[in-house]
Specification:
By secondary structure, the protein is an all-alpha fold. 77% of the residues lie in helices and 1% in strands.
Length: 345
Protein backbone atom coordinates (compact mmCIF):
# COMPACT_ATOMS: atom_id res chain seq x y z
CA UNK A 1 0.00 0.00 0.00
CA UNK A 2 1.46 3.36 -1.07
CA UNK A 3 1.82 6.44 1.10
CA UNK A 4 -1.24 8.05 -0.50
CA UNK A 5 -3.54 5.16 0.40
CA UNK A 6 -2.00 4.47 3.80
CA UNK A 7 -2.55 8.03 5.02
CA UNK A 8 -5.49 8.94 2.76
CA UNK A 9 -7.66 10.17 5.63
CA UNK A 10 -4.85 12.56 6.66
CA UNK A 11 -4.49 13.90 3.12
CA UNK A 12 -8.25 14.38 2.82
CA UNK A 13 -8.29 16.27 6.13
CA UNK A 14 -5.55 18.56 4.87
CA UNK A 15 -7.39 19.00 1.56
CA UNK A 16 -10.51 20.09 3.47
CA UNK A 17 -8.51 22.68 5.43
CA UNK A 18 -6.78 23.91 2.27
CA UNK A 19 -10.09 24.15 0.41
CA UNK A 20 -11.80 26.18 3.13
CA UNK A 21 -8.74 28.44 3.49
CA UNK A 22 -8.35 29.09 -0.24
CA UNK A 23 -12.10 29.55 -0.68
CA UNK A 24 -12.06 32.38 1.85
CA UNK A 25 -8.79 33.90 0.67
CA UNK A 26 -9.55 33.85 -3.06
CA UNK A 27 -13.33 33.44 -3.43
CA UNK A 28 -13.31 35.00 -6.90
CA UNK A 29 -11.17 32.23 -8.32
CA UNK A 30 -13.46 29.53 -6.98
CA UNK A 31 -16.50 31.43 -8.26
CA UNK A 32 -15.02 31.37 -11.75
CA UNK A 33 -14.31 27.64 -11.52
CA UNK A 34 -17.81 27.00 -10.15
CA UNK A 35 -19.24 28.83 -13.18
CA UNK A 36 -17.69 26.30 -15.57
CA UNK A 37 -20.66 23.97 -15.65
CA UNK A 38 -23.18 22.38 -17.96
CA UNK A 39 -26.60 21.26 -16.70
CA UNK A 40 -25.46 21.83 -13.09
CA UNK A 41 -22.47 19.50 -13.65
CA UNK A 42 -19.22 21.30 -12.91
CA UNK A 43 -16.82 20.51 -15.73
CA UNK A 44 -13.67 20.81 -13.62
CA UNK A 45 -15.06 18.43 -11.01
CA UNK A 46 -16.16 16.12 -13.84
CA UNK A 47 -12.60 15.99 -15.19
CA UNK A 48 -11.17 15.25 -11.75
CA UNK A 49 -13.70 12.49 -11.11
CA UNK A 50 -12.89 11.12 -14.57
CA UNK A 51 -9.23 11.03 -13.57
CA UNK A 52 -10.23 9.11 -10.45
CA UNK A 53 -12.35 6.45 -12.11
CA UNK A 54 -10.54 5.93 -15.44
CA UNK A 55 -7.92 3.62 -13.85
CA UNK A 56 -10.76 1.51 -12.46
CA UNK A 57 -12.49 1.34 -15.82
CA UNK A 58 -9.30 0.00 -17.40
CA UNK A 59 -9.48 -2.91 -14.97
CA UNK A 60 -13.01 -3.94 -16.02
CA UNK A 61 -12.96 -7.22 -17.91
CA UNK A 62 -16.04 -7.35 -20.12
CA UNK A 63 -15.63 -11.09 -20.63
CA UNK A 64 -16.13 -11.53 -16.88
CA UNK A 65 -19.28 -9.41 -16.59
CA UNK A 66 -21.38 -12.40 -17.62
CA UNK A 67 -20.32 -14.04 -14.34
CA UNK A 68 -22.09 -11.35 -12.32
CA UNK A 69 -25.32 -13.31 -12.71
CA UNK A 70 -23.77 -16.13 -10.71
CA UNK A 71 -23.89 -13.96 -7.59
CA UNK A 72 -27.08 -11.88 -7.78
CA UNK A 73 -27.42 -11.30 -4.04
CA UNK A 74 -25.10 -8.26 -3.99
CA UNK A 75 -27.16 -6.56 -6.68
CA UNK A 76 -30.41 -7.37 -4.89
CA UNK A 77 -28.97 -5.93 -1.67
CA UNK A 78 -28.13 -2.54 -3.20
CA UNK A 79 -31.46 -2.31 -5.01
CA UNK A 80 -33.46 -3.02 -1.85
CA UNK A 81 -31.42 -0.54 0.21
CA UNK A 82 -31.41 2.22 -2.42
CA UNK A 83 -35.07 2.10 -3.42
CA UNK A 84 -37.05 0.50 -0.59
CA UNK A 85 -35.21 1.67 2.53
CA UNK A 86 -32.84 4.61 2.10
CA UNK A 87 -35.23 7.32 0.79
CA UNK A 88 -37.76 6.63 3.56
CA UNK A 89 -35.27 6.51 6.44
CA UNK A 90 -33.80 9.81 5.21
CA UNK A 91 -37.25 11.41 5.17
CA UNK A 92 -38.01 10.05 8.65
CA UNK A 93 -34.72 11.29 10.12
CA UNK A 94 -35.16 14.70 8.51
CA UNK A 95 -38.64 15.07 9.99
CA UNK A 96 -37.51 13.79 13.43
CA UNK A 97 -34.60 16.18 13.75
CA UNK A 98 -36.00 19.34 12.18
CA UNK A 99 -39.60 19.01 13.32
CA UNK A 100 -38.85 17.67 16.82
CA UNK A 101 -35.26 17.85 18.08
CA UNK A 102 -34.20 21.10 16.33
CA UNK A 103 -37.59 22.80 16.28
CA UNK A 104 -36.32 25.65 18.49
CA UNK A 105 -33.22 26.30 16.38
CA UNK A 106 -34.66 26.60 12.87
CA UNK A 107 -37.81 28.36 11.63
CA UNK A 108 -40.53 26.05 10.18
CA UNK A 109 -40.06 27.10 6.54
CA UNK A 110 -36.31 26.63 6.62
CA UNK A 111 -36.72 23.33 8.46
CA UNK A 112 -39.02 22.06 5.71
CA UNK A 113 -36.48 23.03 3.08
CA UNK A 114 -33.69 21.25 4.95
CA UNK A 115 -35.83 18.11 5.07
CA UNK A 116 -36.50 18.41 1.34
CA UNK A 117 -32.79 18.65 0.59
CA UNK A 118 -32.07 15.57 2.70
CA UNK A 119 -34.81 13.65 0.89
CA UNK A 120 -33.29 14.55 -2.48
CA UNK A 121 -29.97 13.13 -1.32
CA UNK A 122 -31.67 9.95 -0.13
CA UNK A 123 -33.40 9.32 -3.45
CA UNK A 124 -30.25 9.69 -5.58
CA UNK A 125 -27.84 6.72 -5.36
CA UNK A 126 -24.21 7.33 -6.30
CA UNK A 127 -23.02 7.08 -9.90
CA UNK A 128 -19.36 8.14 -9.96
CA UNK A 129 -17.57 8.15 -6.62
CA UNK A 130 -18.65 4.59 -5.83
CA UNK A 131 -15.98 3.41 -8.27
CA UNK A 132 -13.39 5.07 -6.04
CA UNK A 133 -14.78 3.45 -2.89
CA UNK A 134 -14.93 0.10 -4.66
CA UNK A 135 -11.28 0.30 -5.63
CA UNK A 136 -10.21 1.32 -2.12
CA UNK A 137 -11.99 -1.75 -0.72
CA UNK A 138 -10.56 -3.99 -3.48
CA UNK A 139 -14.06 -4.59 -4.77
CA UNK A 140 -14.85 -6.45 -7.99
CA UNK A 141 -14.79 -3.72 -10.70
CA UNK A 142 -17.02 -5.74 -13.03
CA UNK A 143 -19.67 -6.23 -10.38
CA UNK A 144 -19.47 -2.56 -9.35
CA UNK A 145 -20.10 -1.48 -12.95
CA UNK A 146 -23.21 -3.65 -13.17
CA UNK A 147 -24.51 -2.34 -9.83
CA UNK A 148 -24.05 1.28 -10.90
CA UNK A 149 -25.59 0.67 -14.33
CA UNK A 150 -28.71 -1.05 -12.95
CA UNK A 151 -29.22 1.67 -10.33
CA UNK A 152 -28.88 4.34 -13.02
CA UNK A 153 -31.53 2.63 -15.14
CA UNK A 154 -33.91 2.41 -12.18
CA UNK A 155 -33.19 6.05 -11.26
CA UNK A 156 -34.46 7.17 -14.67
CA UNK A 157 -37.96 5.88 -13.86
CA UNK A 158 -38.07 5.88 -10.03
CA UNK A 159 -36.40 9.15 -9.00
CA UNK A 160 -39.29 11.48 -9.84
CA UNK A 161 -42.16 9.37 -8.37
CA UNK A 162 -40.36 8.67 -5.07
CA UNK A 163 -39.27 12.30 -4.77
CA UNK A 164 -42.80 13.50 -5.48
CA UNK A 165 -44.21 11.09 -2.90
CA UNK A 166 -41.83 12.11 -0.12
CA UNK A 167 -41.87 15.85 -0.86
CA UNK A 168 -45.60 15.97 -1.43
CA UNK A 169 -45.01 17.76 -4.73
CA UNK A 170 -46.70 16.45 -7.84
CA UNK A 171 -44.80 18.29 -10.57
CA UNK A 172 -41.21 17.14 -10.03
CA UNK A 173 -39.20 17.97 -13.10
CA UNK A 174 -36.22 15.65 -13.41
CA UNK A 175 -33.23 17.59 -14.80
CA UNK A 176 -32.58 15.12 -17.59
CA UNK A 177 -29.54 17.03 -18.84
CA UNK A 178 -27.90 16.69 -15.42
CA UNK A 179 -28.82 13.02 -15.07
CA UNK A 180 -27.80 11.97 -18.58
CA UNK A 181 -24.72 14.19 -18.71
CA UNK A 182 -23.48 12.80 -15.40
CA UNK A 183 -23.98 9.21 -16.49
CA UNK A 184 -22.23 9.93 -19.79
CA UNK A 185 -19.30 11.75 -18.15
CA UNK A 186 -18.84 9.46 -15.16
CA UNK A 187 -19.73 6.04 -16.56
CA UNK A 188 -20.06 5.78 -20.34
CA UNK A 189 -17.11 7.88 -21.51
CA UNK A 190 -14.47 6.56 -19.08
CA UNK A 191 -15.81 3.03 -19.63
CA UNK A 192 -15.38 3.28 -23.41
CA UNK A 193 -11.92 4.81 -23.12
CA UNK A 194 -10.95 2.28 -20.46
CA UNK A 195 -12.13 -0.63 -22.61
CA UNK A 196 -10.18 0.70 -25.59
CA UNK A 197 -7.06 1.11 -23.46
CA UNK A 198 -7.41 -2.42 -22.09
CA UNK A 199 -7.80 -3.83 -25.60
CA UNK A 200 -4.69 -2.05 -26.87
CA UNK A 201 -2.58 -3.18 -23.92
CA UNK A 202 -3.73 -6.80 -24.20
CA UNK A 203 -3.25 -7.23 -27.93
CA UNK A 204 -0.24 -9.48 -27.34
CA UNK A 205 -2.22 -11.70 -24.99
CA UNK A 206 -0.11 -10.62 -22.02
CA UNK A 207 -1.36 -8.71 -18.97
CA UNK A 208 2.06 -7.35 -17.99
CA UNK A 209 1.62 -4.08 -19.94
CA UNK A 210 -1.88 -3.65 -18.55
CA UNK A 211 -0.75 -4.21 -14.96
CA UNK A 212 2.18 -1.80 -15.36
CA UNK A 213 -0.10 0.87 -16.86
CA UNK A 214 -2.67 0.53 -14.05
CA UNK A 215 0.11 0.79 -11.46
CA UNK A 216 1.31 4.06 -13.02
CA UNK A 217 -2.21 5.50 -13.06
CA UNK A 218 -3.07 4.57 -9.48
CA UNK A 219 -1.47 7.63 -7.80
CA UNK A 220 -3.36 9.93 -10.16
CA UNK A 221 -6.62 8.51 -8.88
CA UNK A 222 -5.72 9.68 -5.38
CA UNK A 223 -4.56 13.07 -6.68
CA UNK A 224 -7.90 13.49 -8.42
CA UNK A 225 -9.74 12.67 -5.19
CA UNK A 226 -7.76 15.21 -3.15
CA UNK A 227 -8.14 17.93 -5.79
CA UNK A 228 -11.90 17.28 -5.86
CA UNK A 229 -12.08 17.69 -2.07
CA UNK A 230 -10.18 20.99 -2.25
CA UNK A 231 -12.59 22.34 -4.87
CA UNK A 232 -15.77 21.13 -3.15
CA UNK A 233 -14.82 22.74 0.15
CA UNK A 234 -13.44 25.81 -1.62
CA UNK A 235 -16.76 26.33 -3.40
CA UNK A 236 -18.62 26.31 -0.08
CA UNK A 237 -15.99 27.97 2.12
CA UNK A 238 -17.96 31.16 2.68
CA UNK A 239 -21.11 29.19 3.57
CA UNK A 240 -19.13 27.04 5.98
CA UNK A 241 -17.82 30.13 7.75
CA UNK A 242 -21.07 32.13 7.68
CA UNK A 243 -23.56 29.38 8.62
CA UNK A 244 -21.61 26.92 10.78
CA UNK A 245 -24.55 26.22 13.11
CA UNK A 246 -26.96 25.26 10.32
CA UNK A 247 -24.33 23.11 8.63
CA UNK A 248 -23.73 21.33 11.93
CA UNK A 249 -27.46 20.76 12.45
CA UNK A 250 -27.93 19.35 8.93
CA UNK A 251 -24.84 17.17 9.24
CA UNK A 252 -26.12 15.32 12.34
CA UNK A 253 -29.06 13.47 10.71
CA UNK A 254 -27.04 12.99 7.52
CA UNK A 255 -24.28 11.28 9.49
CA UNK A 256 -26.78 9.07 11.33
CA UNK A 257 -28.42 8.16 8.02
CA UNK A 258 -25.12 7.36 6.31
CA UNK A 259 -23.71 5.19 9.07
CA UNK A 260 -27.10 3.61 9.74
CA UNK A 261 -27.66 2.62 6.10
CA UNK A 262 -24.09 1.32 5.87
CA UNK A 263 -24.45 -0.96 8.87
CA UNK A 264 -27.81 -2.25 7.63
CA UNK A 265 -26.16 -3.15 4.32
CA UNK A 266 -23.05 -4.48 6.06
CA UNK A 267 -25.05 -6.75 8.38
CA UNK A 268 -27.27 -7.95 5.54
CA UNK A 269 -24.23 -8.70 3.34
CA UNK A 270 -22.70 -10.76 6.12
CA UNK A 271 -25.94 -12.69 6.68
CA UNK A 272 -26.25 -13.26 2.92
CA UNK A 273 -22.69 -14.70 2.96
CA UNK A 274 -21.42 -12.43 0.21
CA UNK A 275 -17.74 -12.36 -0.59
CA UNK A 276 -15.88 -9.23 0.50
CA UNK A 277 -15.18 -8.09 -3.07
CA UNK A 278 -18.95 -7.98 -3.68
CA UNK A 279 -20.14 -7.03 -0.19
CA UNK A 280 -17.86 -3.97 0.15
CA UNK A 281 -18.92 -2.14 -3.03
CA UNK A 282 -22.53 -3.21 -2.39
CA UNK A 283 -22.37 -1.41 0.97
CA UNK A 284 -20.67 1.61 -0.62
CA UNK A 285 -23.23 2.10 -3.39
CA UNK A 286 -26.06 1.60 -0.89
CA UNK A 287 -24.62 4.38 1.27
CA UNK A 288 -23.26 7.12 -1.01
CA UNK A 289 -25.29 9.71 -2.94
CA UNK A 290 -25.52 11.19 -6.44
CA UNK A 291 -24.98 14.72 -5.15
CA UNK A 292 -24.92 16.47 -8.56
CA UNK A 293 -28.48 15.35 -9.25
CA UNK A 294 -29.67 16.20 -5.73
CA UNK A 295 -28.17 19.70 -5.89
CA UNK A 296 -29.61 20.34 -9.36
CA UNK A 297 -33.15 19.34 -8.34
CA UNK A 298 -32.93 21.34 -5.10
CA UNK A 299 -31.95 24.47 -7.01
CA UNK A 300 -34.65 23.99 -9.65
CA UNK A 301 -37.41 23.36 -7.08
CA UNK A 302 -36.47 25.69 -4.25
CA UNK A 303 -33.86 28.13 -5.57
CA UNK A 304 -30.11 28.58 -5.40
CA UNK A 305 -30.07 30.11 -1.92
CA UNK A 306 -32.73 27.85 -0.40
CA UNK A 307 -32.38 25.61 2.62
CA UNK A 308 -32.88 22.59 0.36
CA UNK A 309 -29.88 23.57 -1.76
CA UNK A 310 -27.80 24.09 1.39
CA UNK A 311 -28.77 20.66 2.73
CA UNK A 312 -27.66 18.95 -0.48
CA UNK A 313 -24.38 20.85 -0.34
CA UNK A 314 -23.79 19.68 3.24
CA UNK A 315 -24.35 16.18 1.92
CA UNK A 316 -21.50 16.78 -0.51
CA UNK A 317 -19.24 18.09 2.25
CA UNK A 318 -19.73 15.17 4.64
CA UNK A 319 -19.67 12.40 2.03
CA UNK A 320 -15.96 12.07 1.29
CA UNK A 321 -14.67 11.98 4.90
CA UNK A 322 -17.51 9.68 5.98
CA UNK A 323 -17.11 7.30 3.05
CA UNK A 324 -13.39 7.02 3.78
CA UNK A 325 -14.23 5.92 7.30
CA UNK A 326 -16.61 3.31 5.89
CA UNK A 327 -13.91 2.08 3.51
CA UNK A 328 -11.68 1.57 6.57
CA UNK A 329 -14.45 -0.38 8.33
CA UNK A 330 -14.90 -2.63 5.29
CA UNK A 331 -11.18 -3.31 4.99
CA UNK A 332 -10.67 -4.00 8.69
CA UNK A 333 -13.51 -6.51 8.73
CA UNK A 334 -12.61 -8.44 5.60
CA UNK A 335 -12.31 -11.58 7.72
CA UNK A 336 -16.04 -11.51 8.51
CA UNK A 337 -17.00 -12.30 4.93
CA UNK A 338 -16.77 -15.35 2.72
CA UNK A 339 -13.38 -15.63 1.04
CA UNK A 340 -13.39 -13.85 -2.31
CA UNK A 341 -12.49 -17.01 -4.19
CA UNK A 342 -15.62 -18.84 -3.03
CA UNK A 343 -18.33 -16.20 -3.29
CA UNK A 344 -21.76 -17.41 -2.36
CA UNK A 345 -24.49 -17.37 -4.96
Amino acid sequence: MGIFERYLSVWVGLAIVVGVFLGNVMPGGFTQIAGLEYAHVNLVIAVLIWVMIYPMMVQIDFSAIKDVGKSPKGLVLTLVINWLIKPFTMAALGWLFFKVFFVNFVDPQTASEYIAGMILLGVAPCTAMVFVWSQLTKGDPNYTLVQVSVNDLIMVVAFAPITALLLGVSDIQVPWETLLSSVALYVVLPLVVGAATRYLLQRKGDDSQLNAFVAKLKPWSMVGLLATVVLLFGFQAETIMSQPQDIFLIAIPLLIQTYGIFFIAFYAAKKMKLSHKIAAPACMIATSNFFELAVAVAISLFGLHSGAALATVVGVLVEVPVMLSLVAICNRNRHLFVADEVSAT
